[in-house]
Amino acid sequence: MTTSQDNKNLLLKVLKHKIRVKSVKIDGLRRVKEDVILPHLKPMLKANNLSTLFGLIDATHTNLDTLDAFDKIDVSIDHLGRNSDHVNEVSLRIAVCEASRHKLGMNVSSDKGLNDGNFNMSYTARNLFGRLESLRVNYVKGTKISDGCSVVFNKPYFSKKMSLFKMGVSKENMLNRTANYMTSDVKSSAVYQMQLLGGKSELSAEALWQQIHGGHVPMKIREEFGHHLKCALRHKYVRDTRDDTLVATTGSRHSVETELAGFMGDVNHVKVNLESQFNAKLLLGYSGALSLRAGLIHELSENRRTWITDKFFCGGPGSVRGFYEDGVGRPLGGTMHWGAGLSLSRNLPFSPHIWGLGKFMRMHHFVNAGNLGNNKNDLIIDPRLSVGSGIIMKIANFRMEINYAVPLRYKPSDVVNHGLQFGIGVNFM
Question: Is the pLDDT of residue 158 over 60?
Fold first, then answer.
């Protein structure tokens, strides 16, 4: 015991020894410019003892790895002796191996909503001009996107706020399963992203040429068939402090998205959508989550309208459970909506080591409410309400739910799903 304690005390004493970092050298750079990585190296020069230095080295290694520019990063410390002030001087040497400039990739994603799966094939040309610029060509095949392709150029700006500029063009053919119509989109966009107020801010300009077409649909949707042009400015701010983005037990997430359309084309409106989620640990192993959503579209001209592809929809496993996807107010949607959800979740009542299920599964009980319409009265009259219980599973980058839901309030025109309901995605209420 004494020997172990002595060793511990000796280690603590060594870690607190005063040092001075005299230099930081990097080897292995071929195409990456030095000014890209210098901001990540400078903090290590401020270390005044070994304990602080090891922490800064770990942070620097993580930051360099995040740049996705190197396959290998090794850090070594050389002792240079003591200076005239009897302080140990050290030199840091960082050896890197740059990643290949060409990258082929395949992955499955879910970025168009609930019960949506996309298979992506991509080619990325990395570090085009030495400052981590990239050009990405992507082809996607999915359940909602029948097929699509895009070309995106990324240009990061290295400062304290680590901003990113993107330009892209894309073409997508998408199926709306609930209303049985198709959209063919050709889009060009410019996006600027930056860290702001502890969250992520994104400002984008977009030009969209869209064709709405399809088969057997209601006449009011058929009236919107044809070609439409929308030019819009959009801003989105997201602040996420949750401990887990898929199955959170603490923290919160807030999102504000604003769109101004009408510079050219036949769409002219202001669209605002708000989302908030609060999570907290409770008694007996339970965690509580409160989710709130609201949105509004205000048309700015009588001659130009809001088409169905911009309207809000409600219902489904990701919003008001107990209804089919977009089953509230189907199929026309609305220019206003609100939603609220309260849920209690906890680990399954058996050891996580039994078949390993408890490590990625939780049970939960929920109450959901929401409504949508085209005026304030629509939002107040006959709100939809449902309750239920189910199982949450975290699989890779997705959250999957199997629930038994009971709709308590609904209209005859709604498409309800009383009983088992399955959902997979990343954003649930």
Answer: yes
